[in-house]
Amino acid sequence: MREDPRFVRSRTLLAGTLHRLVRTVPLAEISVSALCQEAGVHRTTFYRHAGSVRELAITTFAADIGELTTVTIAPDAESPHEAARRYRDSLRDVLTFVAADRGLYRALFGSDAHDSLAGALGAVMRPQARKAVQVFRRQGVAGAPTSDHAGEEAAAFIAGAFVGVLEAWVDSQETDAEAAADRISALMPGWWPDPRAGRPTTLGR
Question: What average pLDDT does range 86-109 have in this prediction?
């Protein structure tokens, strides 16, 4: 069913305003009133989207990361190694993205599983991981899960691992997203294709 355009518009306004405010104001100091005033949105409308600024932030920034990890693969047109390389590159993009606002993401991960970025990311990443498993199954990758149950287990494992390594990255001071993406890719299940295979090399390196 198509969403009400007014609902979509107010959600977009709130998310955009939140993106702008967290650049200069700590998340914990942003009130619902201040956010609504800045966005030009009524408080009643705000509460149709979220119960608190933190909840809105978790939903908004989890969606941002979800977009960065959305990879469209043509299983019949790309090799498994090419597909794995595109997943690896999307990981690099996420690491780069969150490194720009580490303080914010540290606050959002928090410790309460019911009110943390980790829980929201898990829900966002599991369908993405499921698609990846299906791609490699369709490509006939040796060792890839062949049953729906095994595929769901693999998707849950990969999604959980992604959330864990992202939190570890946020807690670190590292800035080399390229090296981190290679290192994390090497931790994937043994059947996951090597994204480095067939990678073009540069003369002199």
Answer: 94
pLDDT per residue as tens digits for the range 102-123:
989 998 987 665 678 999 999 9
Helices 53-68, 80-99: crossing angle, 10 deg rounding: 150
Q: Is 69 in contact with 75 (CB distance < 8 Å)?
A: no
The residue type of 151 is: G
| CATH class of the domain comprising 5-49 | mainly alpha
Which own/partner pairs from 25-34 qualify as long-range (CB within 8 Å, at least 24 positions apart)? 26/103, 26/107, 27/53, 27/54, 27/57, 27/104, 27/107, 27/108, 28/54, 28/107
Of residues 12, 193, 3, the one with CA closest to residue 86: 193
Delimit the domains of the chain by residue range: 5-49, 59-185
Residue 151 and residue 159: Cα distance in Å, rounded? 12
Query: Measuring CA to CA, how many Å separate 126 from each of 40, 91, 156?
Result: 35, 15, 6
Cβ neighbours for 36, distance < 8 A, ≥ 6 positions apart: 14, 42, 43, 45, 46
